[in-house]
């Protein structure tokens, strides 16, 4: 017989286990405050990321052609403070330093993108291939490999060659499919012996909605209500074509994986007992993630998109839906073209049903959805206006992917939080909190059975943040953009993320609290270094023709 105290300890343990099982695994409840201590599956891949236009700089160097972002950012009034990515983090020159930062973090992978016009200046392969561009990516990949960091490479992170925009109208034109396929094929040929993870497109939702509907992003078109659907149609077909190219011509030899990276905010019904809100929230996700994922996993657009865009088009007196259709052959060609799904996730919205009457003049992607987005004012939003920290939404989104698309292999390709430009505070406790909570929700999702294989913190460095210029900083490392040499300084979150990586998760409460304390302690010395460097750079700026000197951290 067990001694009495042992029995009661057992009872308490069972109770604790039952409670934590109920709390931790019921993803239909918002588990405010419940934290799951545990580790990730062995071999889980930890990484960080960036993209070509956001970090490389060297926009007109070594034979690179112009991209739509080079041209867009040089137009007055398009970007905050009229900033450009001309030099950005100077990643083109500083990639070796950046790989050292990754090594310091003990990253398993690094996600970056290839600038199409850097290796094919006009976008058309038969015109010219730029050997210097190839050489740059060769060296970057080799440096990563030498440091045992797996490259995860995106082929299209928004920087379409400008010539293709001017000649054909960019993604409005079906000819992009073959040009993109030739570019992808060249990348497989040159880099595929070392690159085993390919992403065709990054966040096509942004490309088509912000590029062709609202015009906030390059190429800055406002083709309301139809342009975004047409661009998406070509992008989905281009994705499928490139997947088949890899599958038939390269996979046998190179043995890699090829997928797509989709952005997915979670949409939660405002009133979970109201069927209209439940359906509206589902529509929100289907018009975003589902728009691209459903054709790729099931062969066609989500039924709800076909229904809503179709009936709005009829009400507008149009003969056909503004949402294009796939032929039966196209459906079977597109279905199943995803070895892994990349998920970029940052935030959540509450959703309620809202009828948008469809006048002829008022056709738009947003009006097609018949919904309104709301936020809870208590949600923290330290940086970007749109980015509220709502960790539980992440777990829900991941479970949605699991149930809707047959539990695919997932790599989280972006997750992180920003702060405002003027913030020179390297002790980023709010980012530590964000990472801790979001990564924990991902761990719970894995315990729910979601097949997540890797996580990419967004981003390694502060960088050009599209139409927001440099006003929002997502980096683990602070970049001093005012200094010519663009020195990098570690924020406190570097230390914290590093500890999550080396423990492969969250061992126990005491240790995690210790990590937080230690991370914040170490950042004060980096703060002093940064402040000193800024003082020095002011003094030097007053002296003509002398560039400020900076030691890197
Ligand atoms: C998604 C985009 O892919 C990425 O480039 C950007 O930095 C983040 N959103 C944050 O806005």
Automatic annotation (TrEMBL):
Origin superkingdom: Eukaryota
UniProt signal peptide: 1-22
Gene3D superfamilies with a match to the protein in the record: Glycosidases (3.20.20.80)
GO molecular function: beta-glucosidase activity; galactosylceramidase activity; glucosylceramidase activity
Classification via PROSITE patterns: GLYCOSYL_HYDROL_F1_1 (PS00572), GLYCOSYL_HYDROL_F1_2 (PS00653)
Pfam families recorded: Glyco_hydro_1
Enzyme class: hydrolase
Family matches, as SUPFAM superfamilies: (Trans)glycosidases
Keyword terms: Glycosidase, Hydrolase, Signal
Active site: 414 (nucleophile)
EC number: 3.2.1.21, 3.2.1.45, 3.2.1.46
Keyword flag Lipoprotein: no
InterPro entries noted in UniProt: GH (IPR017853), GH_1_N_CS (IPR033132), Glyco_hydro_1 (IPR001360), Glyco_hydro_1_AS (IPR018120)
Catalyzed chemical reaction(s): beta-D-galactosyl-(1<->1')-N-octadecanoylsphing-4-enine + H2O = N-octadecanoylsphing-4-enine + D-galactose; Hydrolysis of terminal, non-reducing beta-D-glucosyl residues with release of beta-D-glucose; a beta-D-galactosyl-(1<->1')-N-acylsphing-4-enine + H2O = an N-acylsphing-4-enine + D-galactose; beta-D-glucosyl-(1<->1)-N-octadecanoylsphing-4-enine + H2O = N-octadecanoylsphing-4-enine + D-glucose
GO BP, sorted A to Z: carbohydrate catabolic process
Keyword Signal: yes
Family note: Belongs to the glycosyl hydrolase 1 family. Klotho subfamily.
Protein name: Cytosolic beta-glucosidase
